[in-house]
Specification:
GO terms for molecular function: ATP binding; ATP-dependent peptidase activity; metalloendopeptidase activity. This protein is mainly alpha-helical. It has 3 domains: 63 residues, no CATH class; 177 residues, Peptidase M41 (Methane Monooxygenase Hydroxylase, Chain G, domain 1, Up-down Bundle), CATH 1.20.58.760; 47 residues. The chain is built from 17 helices and 4 strands. A two-stranded parallel ribbon has the order 1-2. A two-stranded antiparallel ribbon has the order 3-4. The N and C termini lie close together (8 Å).
Length: 374
């Protein structure tokens, strides 16, 4: 991706002479002052996307059609946009109720050349074989299909050693005459209640304090984010706090909210094209693919698989079990290769999320990483 080289043009000097036939009659839009950028910052802080977007559109350079027809270039010029300031409009997307407005924010920045690589891979769903057997999947990714399947109980990698250590510790305490059975029963009861009523949110919140677990979540969500961005689907936000995810109705412990306008329109019309479905599935399985790329196998992604199955049932005709398995393998293979081609950008996204940066900063890091990788 190209770096953010273009924002808004500098304020032209009214004293510079030019031939009368080409002289620009500059009109500075009333109220466009440095003080007004404080209003923009306030809109971003309050997550008021409509107000933030209106302000950016007000300082954009325009040439009225009537003036162009008259042969005179009459420009409406605002003060120069401070470097990186226009990116901040993306941070106001998280509370937007209208996803079309989120889409307009991304399109506005893309039209200004800021989001140079937004949607650059949207046609990738048309490429490659459609039938992906486990053998083909291994040839293309070097991984067995089982490595790309979420672990239902989390007993893989380091988690299995944690379980063994926990059971060993309980056994040791019992052998030492310390009866922990009552406390253990209470803990297991609380865990069961958390799983039934809160979807495991409390356990997830506690687990996030374990650095390896937290980083795996970041790797997973960065995969969703980067793939959605490259496929041209606006991202509303990345939720990493389990309790915030619960309040926003997100299944699982974290989530990346993106929007596919084409898919939404087709579903409203009662049909779904293969292209739109494939693009959505690629983004859906990108978290699993990201984990496999970084760790050699996937642990998370069970909710992604459940969402995929529920969508397959809505198709007309619905996919068979064999067709669903093939579509899942195709999707994860495509996402895996896409992330492999943009490995540097994925690492940049993970690092930015790990540092607690906002969405606009994460996307800037993605753009900078792809630009420097060319």
């Amino acid at each position: 991706m190209a770096t953010t080289a273009s924002f808004s043009p500098p304020l032209a000097s009214p004293s510079r002479w030019s031939p009368p036939s080409r002289r620009l009659r500059l009109r500075v839009r009333a109220g466009s002052s440095l003080k007004e950028w404080g209003d923009f910052e306030d809109a971003v802080r309050s997550r008021d996307l409509p107000r933030a977007l209106r302000f950016l559109q007000s300082v954009d350079v325009e040439t009225p059609p009537a003036a162009a027809a008259a042969g005179a270039a009459v420009a409406r010029v605002a003060l120069p946009v401070p470097p990186g300031r226009d990116w901040e409009v993306l941070d106001a997307c998280i509370d937007a109720d209208d996803m079309r407005l989120v889409g307009r924010a991304y399109q506005f920045l893309a039209d200004r050349g800021v989001l140079a690589n937004f949607g650059k891979c949207k046609n990738i769903v048309l490429e490659g074989p459609r039938e992906v057997t486990p053998t083909v999947l291994k040839e293309m990714t070097g991984l067995e299909a089982i490595k790309l399947a979420p672990k239902k109980w989390g007993l893989s990698g380091n988690s299995s050693y944690v379980l063994i250590g926990f059971l060993g510790g309980v056994s040791y305490l019992l052998n030492q005459g310390v009866d922990v059975r009552a406390n253990l029963a209470a803990i297991l009861g609380l865990v069961a209640a958390d799983a039934m009523f809160l979807g495991g949110t409390c356990v997830a919140q506690i687990s996030c304090f374990w650095p390896p677990y937290k980083r795996r979540i970041l790797v997973h969500e960065a995969g969703h984010l980067l793939t959605a961005y490259l496929m041209g689907c606006p991202i509303r936000g990345v939720i990493l706090d389990p309790f915030v995810a619960l309040r926003m109705g997100i299944q699982g412990q974290a989530g990346t909210q993106f929007w596919d306008e084409k898919m939404e329109k087709e579903l409203a019309e009662g049909h779904l094209s293969s292209t739109a479905f494939d693009r959505y599935c690629m983004i859906l399985f990108a978290g699993i693919a990201a984990e496999a790329l970084v760790y050699g196998e996937a642990e998370g992604g069970e909710n992604d698989e459940n969402l995929f199955r529920s969508l397959c049932i809505l198709l007309d005709p619905p996919l068979s079990v064999a067709q669903m398995a093939n579509r899942a393998r195709w999707s994860v293979m495509q996402s895996y290769n896409l992330l492999k081609w943009h490995k540097k950008a994925h690492r940049a996204a993970v690092k930015a999320l790990e540092s607690g940066h906002s969405l606009s900063t994460v996307i800037r890091r993605i753009e900078e990483a792809i630009s420097s990788d060319r």
